[in-house]
Structure formats: C-alpha cells, structure tokens
Amino acid sequence: MDYDILILGGGIIGCSIAYELSKYNLNIALIEKDYDIADDLSFINTAIIYDGAECSNDLMSSLENMGNSLIEEVATKFNVPFKRIGSIRIAQTDVAVDKLYKMYNRAKRRGIKDIHLIDEEHIKEVEPNLNIPVKKALYSQNTAVISPYDLALAYAEVAADNGVIFRLEEDVVDIKKLSKGFRVTTSKNKFTCKVVVNTIPGEQYNLNPTNEEETKVDKKLYYLLVDDSFKECNDTLVINEREESNGFVFQTPTLSLGTLVAVKSDVALSYEELIKTSNSILPNLSKRDINYMFSDEFNVDSMLIDESEISKGYINVTGDHYGEVTIAPALSQILCESLVNNLKCTLKRDFIDKRREYFRFRELSDEQKNELIKIDDRYGKVVCLCNTITEGEIVDAIRRPLGARTVEGIKRRTGATFGNCHGSYCIDKVINILAREMDKKLTDIVEDSKNSNLLVSRIKEFDEV
Ligand SMILES: Cc1cc2nc3c(=O)[nH]c(=O)nc-3n(C[C@H](O)[C@H](O)[C@H](O)COP(=O)(O)OP(=O)(O)OC[C@H]3O[C@@H](n4cnc5c(N)ncnc54)[C@H](O)[C@@H]3O)c2cc1C
Question: Nearest C-alpha to atom 5 of ligand 1 is from which residue?
Fold first, then answer.
C-alpha cells in the first residue's frame, strides 16, 4: 500500500482531519486539486463560531457546541486570531419574541450554557451602539469570530510538520474498492491505500453516489463590507429575523478589516434594497460606507457524515453547512477516534503539537519591531503600505511548510494587496519577491491557479518590474 490513509480534499474539514490523524503512527497523504489548501475559505468568510443555539438540527447543534468549546484551545495553541464577541438576536414584534422564547428553551434543553433572554433596558449594557427599537433579545456569550483560513492553514502546517504529505494540484478522478483497500486515481498518479476519507463536496467522486441532493441551498446570502470609517457598527454579532421575507439580516465584526453585514433573502435584492434592509440594524448606513459587495449560497443545516463503511475503510463527509468551520474541530476529533480504533494504531511519540512561529509586524510594539528588524532587516521593509505588511512576513509565508506560491496565497497568509488600494501599490513587489524566492521568471507568477499569470510578457529585459 502507498498510504495507510488518503484524505481527499484540502478544505477546513480535510485539514483538521489531517491534523488529528497526524498524531498517530500512520502514513497519510492529503490530495487537493488546487494550488493551495482551503481555497473555499475566501478572505472574507463570515467567520462566525456558532454555539448550536440557532441550529434546528440536534446533531449539528451538538457538533457546533462542541466545536465552539474546542476551537478556542486550538486557536490559542496555534496563534490563530480568535475573539469571543457574543451575539444578540433581536425581536421587534410579538411573533419574533415567541420565536426567541422557543429558541431559548431549545438551547436550554440542549444544555447550552451562557444564553440569556434580555429586555430592551439591558441590551444597552451588552451592546451600547445598538440604536433600534427592540422588544426582547437572545444574548449568547459564546459566539466568536475567527480567521478561518488561518485556522485551516495552522491545521495543515502542523500536520505537514508531523509527516502528512500534501499533494496539491492533483485532481481526484476515480476511487475504486480493491479486495484489500482502495485505489485512488488522480490527474497525475494512482495510489493504493487502506482507508479513504473523502471530503470532496458533491457526489462526483463518491464511492456510493446517490441521486439525492443532500445539501439544501436556502437562497442567497448577500454581503456588504462596511468601511472602518463608519463608526456606528456594533461590537457584537447582531441578528434581526425578517419575518416578512423568511430571511434575516446580521452584522458582525471581522478579525480582518471592517464589519460585515449579511442579508439572507428568498428573492433577488437590489443594492438599494440591501442598504435599506441593513438599516434595520444600522439605521444610518449608506452606500458611501460600503467597500465591497458580494453574494454566496446560504446552506441550511444538512450535512452527511457517512461512517457506515468505516469497517471497510471508507468515510464520506459531504454536504455544506453554514457552520462547517465551527464544527471542524469536533468532527475531526470524532472521526479520528473511530478511524484509529478501527486501524488499531498507536500514538506518535515524537508528535509536535506546535505551529512554527510567525510575526504580524503591525501588531508588535515598537520595541518588538526593532528587535525583529535587528534579527532580519527584511522586517524593516514595508511592502504593503495599506496593511503594513513587511517583506519579512512575505518571505516567511513562502518558506513555511505549505508555503504560498501565488499572489492570492500571499494575500491570504499576510493580508498584503488587500488594502484600500487593492494592491495597486504593492502587487508588483509581491510578484518580484515570489519570483526571487521560488527562482521563477516574473512572467511565471500566477494569481491563484494554473494559467492565471499576472504578467503576459516582457516588453524590455529589466530584472525587476
Ligand atoms: C460565504 C460563506 C460564509 C461562511 N461563513 C461561515 C461562518 O461564519 N462560520 C462557519 O462555521 N462556517 C461558515 N461557512 C462554511 C464553511 O466556510 C464551508 O462550509 C467550509 O469551508 C467547507 O469546508 P470543506 O472542507 O467541507 O469543503 P471545501 O472547503 O469545499 O473543501 C473541499 C476541497 O476539496 C477540493 N476538491 C474538490 N474536488 C476535488 C477533486 N476532484 N480532487 C481533489 N480535490 C478536490 C476543493 O478544491 C476544496 O479545497 C461559510 C461558507 C460560505 C460559502
């Protein structure tokens, strides 16, 4: 056998499973079709860590609640930005108040702690910025925000340091059951393995395809990224149900830049309608306060974790869930436990549960900055002026385990090119550093994937752009 375990798909679920399994004496590889891991975790993910109170499905709720407790430990251990911000779900009508009571009672029945029903006069104590009429609110102290890409990267880096092989740019095209184990065919190779953990979304490469669509897409979620100059945003996640349209609107602080407003709607909304809906939480928000707008599918709580063939060595994790980042630590621990029990393998003695150190220059004190520059003067050269990202950080992002190989990889790892100038000042500098560090031609540097080259050709033979 080439491997004991092959993990298919390098999203947050695949990477967290790789990390959990890397604690054991197993020969593991993860296969990912893209240039980088966790491609789905775009720079602006809502990044909310739920606590299971909002979830209608009991199993998903308990995974969320378990994930909510575990994730803080993981974030602290691996230096992943994480903050408990709390959430306030507000009710402005009697029908909405009724709904809140039901949600509160369900959360209590599920044993979720630190959830409170509060009246209007107490809301200001929790969220002084909230400036709208409210009859009742459900306040959860558990809700948090995280940097989800950084979490996936941390899991992957530690797994790689502990021996998991990441096979990037390999597309899984077939999985076959053999008399012993499996054969997985990719666009580049054929591998045999004892166990397959398949996290590729959809049915395309499923060993047992069904005709049923497990994921129910519940219409669209529209996002507005509010500029930092708008000073009336709440520090807490604020959710307002919209009974009239079977949707909701929420506003959440992010750990990267600005505040996100999200509107879920069954019908298409114009930009003006989005702003108007957002005003139900942020009354003075206007078009000029918005930096970006984008939309995505909102997936309701249905996810399939199929362990029925675990004794034959096949686990399938499929479906999409709006809280998959939240459940990742819990799901991966549970799956890992079942797998290692089946394989009867032992813990590694030399497992290193530590992520290699890195520095975010802009968060250091002046004294720390000077010390760092003394050790490596590349930390003294600011490449991205908008976000104060130094050359030292970019070089580290390239040289780390699973290092960045694309401009998008640099952006996700460091924040360079993601400022108000959208990279117009620093993108050429980032391309130069990537080409130098990877010993490639400038014209070979890609944005995020094959054939996404940023420079078409040379017009003059300069060494730098
Ligand atoms: C807009 C948005 C906001 C969200 N906000 C939150 C939030 O606030 N809180 C929260 O907890 N969750 C949130 N989520 C959910 C969460 O981000 C996603 O559900 C999660 O990232 C999915 O992870 P995954 O590992 O299951 O799948 P994916 O990330 O899709 O990973 C699967 C991987 O498989 C790879 N792959 C596909 N086909 C092949 C193939 N043939 N061969 C090899 N590799 C292949 C893909 O490239 C991909 O990297 C949000 C999701 C979206 C879309």
Answer: 46
